[in-house]
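STRUCTURE:
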């Protein structure tokens, strides 16, 4: 059976403890590989290697040289596209048709985009007068922050990990990555690509394991890590933030959401249905930006519900190799237990189940997989846990509203503030509503349309800070002002 090892200082190494855990294919429940679990010793070795690499050859490269290497990393991912695709789909169960359009291309783009962007950062400079009349000039230089601890989730493993590693390396930092225990393979594979691209040893390190009392906690507790970037659940973000406080380390948190879609009567119904179907069900609903609360203006409510039901029932649930599959399984049987507990809770709370609500019939070879049906409810009270908690499954609740003010109030009613989607052909209204929705990202007549130069992040309990474009460069560097008396 294949073993997945840590990547430390340019070498694949196993754990001294010999502790291994199973990596399971969620489409059939079978073990794909055995993964080494890092103890404090491996995490320390990875952090020490990253610290040392800061002042090695990596630290001496010009921006252009660094950028050229990162372009080679992007090219390396593209050259091994099929290997990354196979690995990502085995770990997550997602359709290859989706991962080949989203996950893997974005994994490469996260390096090439930031490799270009880092070469075009404007620098500030101010002239000042001095009492003796000679003046002084101030100018800012940016330096890498140091060793960055990257902790990533399982829903878009390569995409979300490289979204941090790309800009961190572009800015000259070194990294220690702790991928999710559910999806270790593409992060492990990236070590080979780094080596082939000429990234010096120690610049990119990977340790595998779990969160609490395992590799994740050992990394956040390590005093030589200079900053943390984390994507995952809000509760985990709180724990990591506490660890980062020791030693006053900087932190960027991209956390959970319970995002609202606002569908106005003046929308283009075809676009709103297509967009809401994608935002609720793509990646089996395991996208932090997904729409789990849909608010629809009352005059079009019945038509919208009927059409969304038809769309959901047309979705094909199937394994990664099925070219017609729109949805794979959830990431694990454990996560399915959580999602199914909300499916039951919805019924207990008096929901009308418009479609789904259970487990689909699958052929025998996939019987052990984490399959669930795409599910739509109506009729729940606003305070039902199904409407207030992030479920992270292929489901949404639809509720009518009567006025624009009510729609905005409903959208803003939860402690999350990650994303929102507004469906309206009245651009003045869409602009007005977008300004009042408390979220880091608002899409109008679209969803998950990404330009990597834009800010990305959430307000309230959906996160702290912004990454993307200059905001990533801001987070991954320390700015220093140099004042020269003339
Ligand atoms: P999670 O918080 O359980 O785990 C994320 C990572 O943190 C994993 O690598 C895990 O091992 C690690 N971890 C867990 N406990 C830790 C601890 N005590 N110390 C250090 N590391 C620890 O999240 P998940 O279940 O993997 O991912 C799903 C969640 O991620 C959802 O809440 C989703 O909304 C969120 N998410 C947010 C964004 C965003 O951009 N805002 C993007 C994707 C996912
Ligand atoms: O597109 C991105 O950069 C990004 N961070 C997406 C997050 C998706 C959440 O599941």
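SEQUENCE:
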């Amino acid at each position: 059976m294949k073993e997945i090892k840590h990547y430390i200082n340019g070498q694949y190494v196993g754990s001294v403890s010999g502790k291994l855990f199973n990596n399971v294919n969620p489409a059939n429940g079978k073990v794909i590989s055995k993964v080494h679990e890092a103890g404090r010793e491996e995490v320390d070795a990875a952090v020490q290697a990253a610290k040392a690499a800061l002042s090695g050859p990596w630290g001496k490269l010009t921006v252009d040289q660094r950028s050229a290497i990162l372009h080679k990393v992007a090219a390396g991912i593209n050259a091994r596209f099929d290997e990354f695709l196979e690995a990502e789909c085995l770990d997550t169960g997602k359709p290859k048709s989706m991962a080949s359009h989203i996950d893997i291309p974005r994994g490469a783009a996260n390096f090439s985009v930031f490799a270009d962007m880092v070469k075009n950062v404007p620098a500030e400079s101010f002239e000042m007068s001095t009492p003796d009349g000679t003046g002084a000039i101030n100018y800012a230089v940016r330096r890498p922050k140091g060793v960055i601890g990257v902790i990533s989730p399982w829903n878009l493993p390569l995409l979300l990990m490289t979204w941090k590693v790309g800009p961190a390396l572009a800015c000259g930092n070194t990294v220690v990555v702790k991928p999710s225990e559910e999806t270790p393979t593409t992060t492990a594979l990236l070590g080979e690509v780094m080596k082939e691209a000429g990234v010096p040893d120690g610049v990119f390190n990977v340790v595998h394991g779990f969160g609490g009392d395992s590799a994740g906690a050992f990394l956040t507790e390590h005093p030589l890590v200079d900053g943390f970037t984390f994507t995952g659940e809000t509760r985990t973000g709180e724990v990591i933030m506490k660890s980062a406080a020791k030693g006053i380390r900087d932190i960027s948190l991209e956390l959970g959401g319970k995002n609202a879609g606002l569908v106005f009567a003046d929308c283009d119904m075809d676009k709103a249905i297509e967009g809401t179907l994608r935002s609720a069900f793509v990646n089996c609903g395991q996208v932090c930006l997904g729409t789990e609360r849909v608010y629809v203006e009352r005059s079009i409510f019945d038509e919208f519900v009927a059409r969304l039901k038809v769309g959901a029932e047309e979705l094909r649930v199937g394994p990664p190799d099925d070219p017609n599959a729109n949805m794979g399984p959830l990431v694990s049987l454990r996560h399915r237990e959580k999602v199914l507990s909300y499916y039951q809770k919805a019924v207990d709370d008096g929901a009308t189940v418009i479609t789904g609500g259970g487990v689909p019939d699958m052929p025998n070879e996939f019987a052990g997989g984490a399959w669930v049906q795409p599910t739509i409810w109506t009729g729940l009270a606003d305070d039902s846990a199904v409407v207030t908690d992030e479920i992270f499954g292929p489901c949404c609740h639809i509720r009518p509203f009567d006025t624009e003010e009510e729609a905005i109030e409903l959208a803003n009613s939860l402690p999350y503030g990650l994303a929102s989607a507004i469906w309206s052909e009245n651009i003045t209204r869409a602009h007005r509503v977008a300004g009042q929705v408390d979220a880091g990202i608002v899409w109008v007549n679209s969803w998950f349309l990404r330009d990597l130069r834009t800010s990305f992040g959430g307000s309230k309990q959906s996160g702290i800070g912004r990454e993307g474009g200059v905001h990533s460069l801001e987070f991954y560097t320390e700015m220093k002002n140099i004042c020269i008396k003339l």
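REMARK: The first strand starts at residue 3 and ends at 4.
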